[in-house]
Amino acid sequence: MFGIGRQNTSGAEVRVGFRGGLFRVIEVGVGGLGVLGLGALGLKVLNAQPAQGFGLLKAWGPWPFVALVFLAIAGHFVNGLGDGVHTTFTSLVESSRQGAEAHTRTADALAKLAEQGGRQAEEVRRLAVYAGRELGLISERMDRQDAVMDRIASAVQGLHARLDDKHRG
Amino acid sequence: MSDRELVQTKRRRGTMLKLIRQGHEEQMSRMDDVEMLAMMQLLGQSMGTDQVVTMLQDLQVLGYIRFLQKVSERSGRIEISEIELTAQGLGVVVRRKSNDDVLVD
Fold first, then answer.
1. Distance between CA A158 and CA A63 in Å, rounded?
2. A38-64 as b/e: b if 16+ CB within 10 A
3. pLDDT digit string (tens) for A67-97?
4. Which of residues 44-103 of B touch A (CB under 8 A)?
5. Residue B69's CB: how many other CB atoms inside 10 A?
6. For residue A18, which of A77, A86, A119 has the smallest C-alpha distance?
7. What is the pLDDT of residue B37?
8. Which of A44, A75, A146, B3 can bridge A30 by disulfide, Cβ–Cβ 3.0-4.6 Å?
């Protein structure tokens, strides 16, 4: 699960499968053809009259040998090309994965912010409702306390007056 | 628990019940433990998360409220949501009748 601050450290493993394998097959095939060609050429020369072997080679010229060497080298080149393609695919996939992760983290953060904003607005409303209701009741309580204090004050004045009368009398 | 702490606890319970009732009257969404904590702190009550959860659970045991409770898989703490009054809780709050468990001013 992706979230803020969480990092997925496992890299993307790209199995290009058929595409990557194809380059290897081509490399082996082309390189193999070159080796086989050289071998076949050599056998032909040996099977022909050995004494005329050099003459036969001279008659063919250098181009068959050049072609066979080229085939062997081309195999290596194709393999390098395959490695390059594999690396490029791996980088692309890794880049896409990281982009998707970043999008998910951004979405998570925005959702949390929105939720926080909504909660705070609701808390303010609840506080306003509570204050409005309770202030009225607090005022009523204070009015009742005032009434009680008035009664106490009256009682004390009456007691004071009776004590004065008793003292004079 | 001293007398002062007891009165404080009863008053806090009463405040929680009033908050739940007022939210219901305003047709607001039901609170969870996080919102209840925030409201109590805004009203000047110095309470922590565990205290709020404990007090809500006590109110449930006493029969004044009911809620949904689950354990968070990520944090391992108890999460309470969808808090609402029971009939008994409603009676206490609406009639403003304090008792041995709850102080409703």
1. 139
2. beebeeebeeeeeeeeeeebeeeeeee
3. 888 887 887 888 788 888 888 888 888 988 9
4. none
5. 15
6. A86
7. 96
8. A75
In the stretch 1-20 of chain B, residues with CB closer than 8 A to chain A read 18-19
d(CA B16, CA B10): 10
- The distance of Cα B101 from the centroid of its chain, to the nearest Å, equals 12
CA distances from A102 to A5, A12, A93, A98, A116 (A): 11, 15, 14, 6, 21
B87-99 pLDDT, tens per residue?
A: 999 999 999 989 9
ipTM given for this complex:
0.87
For tokens 């072609």, name the residue. Answer: A67
Q: Which of A127, A133, A141 sits opposite B39 (nearest CB)?
A: A127
Instruction: Note whether B42 contacts A: Cβ–Cβ < 8 A.
Output: yes
Q: Would you call B28 and A127 a contact, using CB atoms and an 8 Å cutoff?
A: no
Do the Cβ atoms of A123 and B105 come within 8 Å? no
Question: Nearest CB to B42: which of A119, A127, A137?
Answer: A127
A144 — contact with chain B (CB < 8 Å)?
no
C-alpha dist (Å) from residue A42 to A36, A47, A63, A64, A117 = 10, 9, 15, 12, 84
The per-residue pLDDT for range B37-93, each reduced to its tens digit, is 999 999 999 999 999 999 999 999 999 999 999 999 888 999 999 999 999 999 999
**Integer angstrom CA distances of residue B56 from A164, B53, B69, B94:** 58, 5, 11, 19
Burial of B17 from C-beta contacts in 10 A (0-12 / 13-18 / 19+): buried
Quick one: closest CA in A to B74, which residue? A1
CA nearest to A135 within chain B: B105
